[in-house]
User: Fold this.
Amino acid sequence: MSPTISIHNLSNFSGISTLKNVFQSLAMLDAVLSPEWEYRYYSFDSKWSSSEMLGSMRNGSGDHLFALFNSFGCIVKGFNHEAPLHSLYLDPCDVSKEVLQSLPDRINGYLQEPALVSEEITFCLWRSYTDANWKATKVDCLNDSDDPDGSGELLMALKRTPQEHKLWVDEYYEVDVPIELVNYVYEHRPFTQATIEKYCLDNFSLSDLLKLDSGKFSVQ
Assistant:
């Protein structure tokens, strides 16, 4: 069955503002559950540069998703190392070259930042603040897979309900996170010391979070 959201079906994908809120919220929850940045699944840097913010998702198996928010709008770049698209090429690097060559020059330029790992890409989508809809890469794939570029698998994770995300968090981090806390971050509400004391880890304070991610999240 085809994924309900992929670069081939973006009609129900979030708008720019909503997508940014989702990345910030999921990153906030991960920061509490995993103080060590390198072990987190979701991260968000509101000070990526003086004019850019960056949301990221890394699954620890080589797959990743970056969402760059800037004055243009948003560019989402993804890499799924098990995407059937790879089977069409003898050299995995050729997949990335094909995808990058299909991009408008302006979008390609944004992805040349080394930290965004442009040599690893199986799909990309973008939307300016004046666009009515998302646009995406169009790379021919003769594979019969419903998700040839792996975009469905990665993008669907950003559309989970709070209950669905709780189940995922419980399994990934081997915890039983309160659904109230997941609802709280999904509502994009700021963290306070009272929030941490009510829902989070013992001996974890707001100052700890500020030291870990100074300026990167909404905390009060």
In short: The helical segments are 16-33, 92-101, 105-110, 151-156, 162-173, 179-186, 193-199, 206-212. Strands lie at 42-49, 52-58, 64-69, 73-79, 123-128, 135-136. Residues 16-33 form the longest helix (18 residues).
